[in-house]
Amino acid sequence: MATEEPKNSYLWEKLDQARKAKAASGGYAGYGSPAFGQQSVNGELVDNPDEQQIIEFIRRHHKSGKSLPQIATWLNQQGYKTKRGNQWQPVSVKRVLDRLYGKTQRISGMDED
Question: Read out DSSP for 39-74?
Fold first, then answer.
């Protein structure tokens, strides 16, 4: 008797493919929170103006030669929080810079900040 692949496996595969296709076209695929600097509006990713301003602060401080810990400290002193409401850590700043400069490929919502 031949074994049949479970139907659930096929369904999950199709859903995963659809999410990846939506993310590749700039849509929000529904995996967790959108990246810092973006928000989901009607299923599409759009810039979050408040977070974009923080990204610009991070970029300016980085370009001026400040280290990741120095940038994180400055953000915390100013009262800025990550998307999840946490204090900034050097690794959080690095993730923002990596995305800003295109060093990491990201499927919408697959990582945290």
Answer: EEETTEEEE-HHHHHHHHHHHHHHHTT--HHHHHHH
Give Cα separations from 109 to 2, 22, 44, 50, 74 (angstroms): 39, 12, 12, 18, 26
7-33: per-residue pLDDT in tens?
677 877 877 777 777 667 666 666 677
Query: What's the pLDDT tens digit per position in 61-70?
Result: 999 999 999 9
Q: How confident is the model at residue 112 (pLDDT cuts 50, 70, 90)?
A: very low
| Euclidean distance between CA atoms 80 and 68, whole angstroms | 15
For the chain, the straight-line distance linking the first and the last C-alpha, in angstroms and rounded, comes to 49
